[in-house]
Amino acid sequence: MFPPERVWWKPLDRMEKNWVTIAFIWCLFMTAMMPIWFFMGRQNVPVTSYRVEPQAFQQKVMDFAEQYKIGDENGVPVVAPPPGDVYLLARQWQWYPILQLKKGETYRLHVSSLDVLHGLSIQPTNLNFQVIPGYDYVIELTPTDSGEFSLVCNEYCEIGHHIMVSKLMVTE
Amino acid sequence: MAAEVAMPVNESEFRTCSATGFKVHLPAEALIKANAVAAVVCILVGGTAALLIAMTRWPAVHLLPADWFYRLLTLHGLDMLVAWIVFFEVAGLYFGSTVLLNARLVKPKLGWFAFALMVLGGALINIIVLMGKADVMFTAYVPLKAHPIFYIGVILFAVGALIAVGLFFATIAVAKKEKTYEGSLPLVVYGLATAAIIATYTLLSGAFAFVPALFWVLGWIPNYDPSVYRNLFWSFGHPAQQINLAAMVAIWYALAAITTGAKPLNEKLSRLAFVLYLLFINLGSAHHLLVDPGLSFAYKAFNTSYMMYLAVLGSMIHAYSIPGAVEVALRKKGHNRGLLGWLRNAPWKEPGFSALVISMVLFGWIGGVTGVTLGTEQLNMVGHNTMRIPGHFHATVVAGTTTAFMAFTYYLIPLIFRRELKLKKWASLQPFVFGAGITMVSIGMITAGIQGVSRRHWDISNVGTLPGTVYVSLTLLGIGALIAVTGLIMYLAVVLSSVLSKKQYDPQSLTLVQAATTAGSEAEAEGRFSPKGTFAIVLAFLMFFAAFYLANWWLLGKTWMVR
Ligand code: HEM
Ligand SMILES: [Cu+2]
Ligand SMILES: [Cu+2]
């Protein structure tokens, strides 16, 4: 509160030095964790993305859904594609289509939005990604357990935000 | 303390504080009052919204319809995070640059102009949001569209704040020239200056984000890339939190000095820690964009680690030096038994002291730990946009910053408003009530988020895969909100009843409830009192930090493979 008296640039004492050293080492460790996991971990943030026209992306998703459709649920096609490129469209207020994947297979999940921002949240796995119109985000995904999962929109996308809930099936 | 220097200014514009001997510039005092009052009005409105949205997220109550939930959530974010905090910080900047330096505020008229802009901007925002024309959240992510008045309000508010920051620097420069203080800037002012420097470039990035958004909404520019907007917005939104951090830490030092007579253990170290904030924390913006398409690993990891962790180091330094200073001060007063005996004998009834401890503990142990974890590139995948995010920042900006600011208001009442603090018992209790409530809110949010509940979400009942235990978390949030709002009402009651009382009061001491424990054997050697209790506490903190951090890697390691 008050101007420091005399000289204030005195050297650190032993305890101060110890704490600063320990804290610094911890910060270095945390810094190292990210590249270590990048090379050795099995969960890393996808970095592949392409610019795409929202309308063109929608068309691609429609064609894809048509090709691999195996059923229908409340007007949304259920789609069982082979491993490889699969597509998911976010739009107010729907995920399109419903995907049925196989456990242990690897998919390149393309996700983008037709209108505003959305958030792809896979539950209860709890994996979360930002979905932005104009960007085709490629998520290389390998489900490691099977069952029915929820897709929840977790970015506010106007009044229907909370009804934007769908599912994702993973079979054995 | 009051410098005996000739002042080339009108002495009749000053009064001398009866408790501290500081010379108080009356035009500055009026501006401090106005901004503090505006801040309190904002927390009143924001708090009302808080109660209503929290009662909506409590599934058993589920109070508001969806449109009003999103509307009031927008309002809550703006009135609290922007208006309450910034008005209070402006008051703090005027206080630091004038009272603490015995200086005059240059150009008070400009200060009133800035105040008018901020009030006008704030009013426009509130009106347009309540009219239902801007249900876009405070982030207003393009291509969501709000009414043009919304952007105009934000821009006016920011320009006003920028002018206030400019006045702060001008005032310090003039004080230096007129030699109203001796030697270096006091640490508190140094911390405020750090906040103000960060504020300058932050507010400028805010203009870069919002001005094109306004033009785009008006149709003057055809396209505004949503990803570019997110980058610009968070170049503003993220460092804005570091303003709050630096201002809060400055106030921590002030509260420690007022309530225990603590002197910084090592000015050099504390100042270095502020410089770390200044240099490095501004680069943390990417940690809102960690799971966005379009950015590389190297960019994200560099931006969040190399840079951010040096800023984290700054916080860890303050986390040691402030309690350490308090410990040494209390030990000097004779409370020298054992490792933690000084804590038992601390002035717990003094709101500035309890608020300091509550603010520091919750900020560090909950806010800091969760923040660093969420800000780690890969770990962000299991937390992004879940309730863990509001859980984190209610521990930082609410339990940390707001608790500290509230307590600091109590000290402004005798010093600046020159009124006696009323309802002293309530004031003593208030930090505990508010702190307990926000702890429950925050933990409720964090645990709900870990189980997959998303933020900004009106109704989770149609998400079939959520475990039943999320209802425990959300109930904790609801009950905690009731307690926190009670703490908020106590704060408003204390402040309003004191400020509105008629009688002028000239304080004789800095403390409000308990006498400052300045007596004691100050003569004893410095070296005998080392802050070993603090050292033990920070080590325990680091253990907890490490455990939480590593647990999150374990959690991540269990999910699906993704690349
Ligand atoms: C009385 C205490 C408070 C309570 C009970 C409270 C409660 C809440 C709740 C329930 C949410 C909604 C979370 C969600 O659904 O995503 C929220 C959001 C938020 N709160 Fe608070 N809050 C309080 C005080 C504050 C204060 C003092 C600040 C700022 C200084 C603040 C800043 C925010 C922000 C920025 C959001 C996010 C808004 C958004 O997602 O757009 N809150 N709060
Ligand atoms: Cu959505
Ligand atoms: Cu949504």
Describe the structure.
The complex is a heterodimer of chains A (172) and B (563). By secondary structure, chain A is α+β, with helices and mostly antiparallel strands. Chain A folds into two domains: 12-44; 47-171, Immunoglobulin-like. Helices cover 24% and strands 40% of the residues of chain A. Chain A has a seven-stranded mixed β-sheet. In chain A, strands 1-10-7-4-5 form a five-stranded mixed β-sheet, covered by helices on one side. In chain A, strand 4 (84-91) and strand 5 form a beta hairpin. Chain A is elongated. The model of chain A has no long low-confidence stretch (mean pLDDT 91). The termini of chain B are far apart. Chain B has helices spanning 26-57, 66-98, 108-130, 148-177, 187-217, 226-260, 267-280, 297-332, 341-344, 351-374, 388-417, 424-450, 470-499, 532-558, and strands at residues 14-16, 23-25, 561-562. Residues 1-7 and 518-525 of chain B have low confidence and may be disordered. Chain B is globular and about 65 Å long. Chain B is an all-alpha fold and 563 residues long. Chain B has 14 helices and three strands. At the A-B interface, helix 1, strand 8, strand 9, strand 10 and strand 11 of A face helix 2, helix 6, helix 7, helix 8 and helix 14 of B. Strand 10 of chain A pairs antiparallel with strand 3 of chain B.
Structural class of chain A: alpha+beta
Main sheet overview of chain B: 2 strands, antiparallel
Approximate strand percentage of chain A: 35-45%
Radius of gyration of chain B: 23 Å
Helix and strand composition category of chain B: mainly alpha
Chains forming the largest contact: A-B, 78 and 99 residues
The CATH H-level homologous superfamily of the largest domain in chain A: Cupredoxins -  blue copper proteins
- The CATH class name of the largest domain in chain A reads Mainly Beta
Multimeric state: heterodimer
Separate helix tally of chain A: 2
Instruction: Show unreliable segments of chain B.
Output: 1-7, 518-525
**Which band does the percent of strand residues of chain B land in?**
under 5%
Kindly state the percentage of residues in helix of chain B. 55-70%
Global outline of chain B: globular
Which spans of chain A have pLDDT < 50 for at least 5 consecutive residues? Answer: none
| Distance N to C terminus of chain B | 61 Å
Order of helices and strands of chain B: EEHHHHHHHHHHHHHHE
Shape of chain A: elongated
The average pLDDT of chain B is 89
What is the count of β-strands of chain A? 12
